[in-house]
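Worked example (supplementary).
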Amino acid sequence: MSKKIEITIDEDGKINAEAFGFKGTGCVDEIMYLLEGLGDPEKIIKKDEYFGDAKVMTESKTKIKRG
Amino acid sequence: MSSRILLTLQIHDRTILIQACKELNLNPKVSGENINVYGLTIKKSAHGYQLIGTLMQKPIVNKIAEKYKTMYNEFVEKQKAVESMQRKLMKKKLNIKSKLQQLAELGSDSVEESQEELENELSSTENEMISSLTLDEIEITDEQIQFKLNTERKIIEKIKQKNLPMRIVRTNNQIKIIAYHS
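After joint prediction of all chains, the assembly is encoded as:
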């Protein structure tokens, strides 16, 4: 599965970032790099891929709200 | 015996009436719906506010009425100017939105530079509007749009720093930026 990060800026200016195809902690690092300086994360949801379970194909999701 | 006089004003804005009295240094005192100023009572009625005083107070009543009318007319003129500017800004925003949409369709490389130009154009229109207005209670800024544009620009800069291919999808309500990793 190709790796990509989708960042959505909604109507209210809220930012939602979601990583696809990453394994381990790399997705969070990538998202934090791209969103650096835009506010502190409001919520980080770690799914199975984050913990290295390659058998379960799910997505990592990071929700960041502007400070 | 002093004669009572009655002058009814078509008052549309209580704040302007109080402000008019203040500018005449009449120290208005607000008591519920009524305003007491310089021995005069300004009462609210079904048709507007009524300035009631004696014949001797007629000059001051006229003075308040005159000041109010001047200030109210100025207010109406400013409101018209604001509405006109709002229409102008709205038209410009729609134009900018359409241009950004076209740029997004052209590809990510050309978006950033042109977007910055359009962003500056929008900002300068807003500044022009703000500087032309003096009414404190009317604010015409669109911080949300500005914030979203700045956020988008910063994210695109970061993606470009990493030399990652990207795609930008715009809809009416949201902007989606997709960065592809090898």
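Two points are worth noting when inspecting this output. The first strand of chain B starts at residue 4 and ends at 9. The longest helix of chain B spans residues 58-106.
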